[in-house]
Amino acid sequence: LxxxxxxxxxxxxxxxxxxxxxSQNVRQLVHAWYSENNDRFSITEGLAPIDIFxxxxxxxxxxxxxxxxxxxxSLIVGCVPLIIQPSVRQPFDDVxxxxxxxxxxxxxxxxxxxxxxxGVTPAEHARMxxxxxxxxxxxxxxxxxxxxxxxxxxx
Length: 155
Known about the structure:
Blueprint: E1 2-6, H1 18-23, H2 26-34, E2 41-45, H3 51-54, E3 58-62, H4 70-77, E4 80-84, E5 103-104, H5 113-118, H6 122-135, E6 140-143, E7 149-152
Parallel strand pairs: 1-2, 1-3, 3-4, 4-5
Antiparallel strand pairs: 6-7
């Protein structure tokens, strides 16, 4: 149902640890709620192959350094982005209607996340995937310094 790959622990102690501030505690909350005894969530600490995104219906795009690369990866591999990034504007949000291709939730929704995602009908999910394929190209870039190679937009 959901795929997440990334760092779950921070440096430092307590609520002011560097990673807590970096992720706004979103990754840690999802991990705390869904990592144990839940085969519907694939939560991998550290780097994981990009195919974890392609095997999931929804791919978590949590807070990070700005909007991060997970949004783009999700769209490119055909996974509906699950955006939980309190107070972070998304790229091109003035021209793209994110509700057509992504789910945007608040950190307060994390305890109910599984029920929310299971409430998305197959028809709604398919519609979001179709729209996601159409907008995915907005997240490609051309690197003029690397002989014109294309890639995924990243911070």
